[in-house]
UniProtKB/TrEMBL annotation:
Keywords: FAD, Flavoprotein, Oxidoreductase. Residues 21-130 form the Acyl-CoA dehydrogenase/oxidase N-terminal domain. Pfam families: Acyl-CoA_dh_1, Acyl-CoA_dh_M, Acyl-CoA_dh_N. It comes from Sporosarcina ureae. This is Acyl-CoA dehydrogenase. Residues 135-228 form the Acyl-CoA oxidase/dehydrogenase middle domain. Belongs to the acyl-CoA dehydrogenase family. It comes from the Bacteria. InterPro entries: Acyl-CoA_Oxase/DH_mid-dom (IPR006091), Acyl-CoA_Oxase/DH_mid-dom_sf (IPR046373), AcylCo_DH-like_C (IPR036250), AcylCo_DH/oxidase_C (IPR009075), AcylCoA_DH/ox_N (IPR013786), AcylCoA_DH/ox_N_sf (IPR037069), AcylCoA_DH/oxidase_NM_dom_sf (IPR009100), Mito_Isobutyryl-CoADH (IPR052547). PANTHER family: ISOBUTYRYL-COA DEHYDROGENASE (PTHR43831), ISOBUTYRYL-COA DEHYDROGENASE, MITOCHONDRIAL (PTHR43831:SF1).
Length: 404
């Protein structure tokens, strides 16, 4: 078929341009899973604001519950690149499922990196069996500065008494357990950040509804942890000093995975707009929408924007994999990750708007293209916001500390 198209003068897009070498089969498997399991539930999840638990269960059954941890522990080779390929591919079909999975993956990787061997053996099998992990970081008082934590967990004879109000928790009330960021007033470490693992059914855990413009299925509502008793064995890492893992585990995973999601949303919207424009024929002229040069130029401009972000995405993912192989800290990649997230989140707004414009009145109606517009809008305001990231990039450029 490809030879026939080439003989007909139809240009073929090189496979290496859209997929990093060695991940072609993974990408095909991810798209097959997305078409079969994620897409049929995507609109229902959006319209009914229902959590995509069944879709997430299918993702776990396919072996994608902890892909970034070492292969010997159950991950995939070149795990960060695999993570980016999967996130981008899944987002073509259901962004809500994708963002829940990204936060779940970040939770799993943090448990592996910061946890003890006993905690890895106890918790990672639960994730591989289909349970969902979530991160509870952001707090109302500090807004998008999610790394500044005001809540506290007081040490007592049985562990810690946690009191925290969290503003946005993806999979809030739906995850099986949460990695809660809080502070320890007793620690001697200047960095008092601490991580506690809290089960969803513990006394004092309260989740609130999520009603938003887009990503309606991901249950990212507020959560309260009121006087929740957390056993010492469920402290992940040390009592304080967890800022290291914020910079070297959580931020890299979240920034990479979410940027991949925005790339996938943009490509998914553009694919739908292109297919619709090819099929739509005006009876009065006998021309399809794509017969108009202005439409073809709009599609071309949008695709160039998507591919620019995709190129940054896979270059950054491959750099993270190199850091892992060479024993370097992932924080060495924070600057490109900031640029990647900022560009991808800006790009998805532009491209989904173009996709809607190309789709015309049909695109404005409730459906996949319209949903992509709403879903993609979350990226630029999701912490660290694009404004914060541009400030960090600018400070780095003029060689001053990026965070005071």
């Amino acid at each position: 078929m490809e030879k026939q198209k080439q003989q007909e003068g139809i240009m073929q897009i090189p496979e290496w341009w859209t997929c990093p070498e060695g991940h072609e089969e993974l990408q095909k498997a991810a798209h097959a899973l997305g078409k079969k399991e994620l897409l049929p539930r995507a609109l229902i999840s959006d319209q009914q604001r229902s959590y995509p638990r069944e879709s997430l269960r299918e993702v776990a059954k396919s072996g994608y519950s902890a892909v970034t941890i070492p292969v010997e522990a159950g991950g995939l080779k070149d795990g960060f690149t695999a993570f980016a390929v999967l996130s981008e591919s899944f987002a073509h079909y259901c962004p809500s499922t994708t963002m829940c999975w990204v936060m779940h993956m970040t939770t799993a990787h943090t448990i592996y990196e910061a946890g003890t061997e006993e905690q890895r053996q106890r918790l990672l099998p639960r994730l591989r069996d289909g349970q969902i992990g979530g991160l509870a970081f952001s707090e109302r008082a500090t807004g998008g500065h999610f790394w500044n934590i005001g809540s506290k967990a007081i040490r007592n004879a049985n562990g810690y008494l946690l009191d925290a109000e969290k503003s946005f928790v993806t999979s809030g009330g739906e995850a099986d357990f949460y990695l809660v960021a809080t502070t320890s007033p007793e620690t001697d470490d200047p960095d008092n950040l601490m991580f506690l693992l809290v089960e969803n059914d513990q006394r004092g855990v309260e989740a609130f509804p999520f009603d938003a413009m887009g990503l309606r299925g991901n249950a990212s509502g507020p959560m309260n942890f009121k006087n929740v008793q957390v056993a010492l064995e469920n402290r992940i890492g040390s009592e304080g000093g967890m800022g290291y893992f914020n910079d070297n585990t959580i931020d890299p995973l979240f920034l990479l995975g979410s940027a991949a999601c925005w790339v996938g949303i943009a490509q998914g919207a553009l694919n739908m707009a292109t297919d619709g424009a090819k099929r739509r024929v005006h009876a009065d002229t006998g021309s399809s929408v794509t017969d108009y040069q202005v439409i073809r130029h709009e599609l071309a401009k949008a695709q160039i924007k998507v591919d620019s972000a995709r190129s940054m995405l896979y270059r950054t993912a491959e750099a993270l994999d190199r850091c892992t192989k060479e024993g370097k800290e992932l924080s060495e990649c924070l600057y490109p990750l900031w640029q990647l997230k900022t560009h991808a989140a800006d790009m998805v707004i532009d491209v989904t708007n173009s996709a809607l414009q190309v789709s015309g009145g049909r695109g404005y109606m409730t459906g996949q293209v319209e949903k992509f517009v709403r879903d993609g809008r979350a990226g630029a305001i999701m912490g660290p916001t694009n404004e914060v990231l541009r400030e960090w990039i600018g400070r780095t450029m003029i060689e001053v500390p990026w965070m005071d």
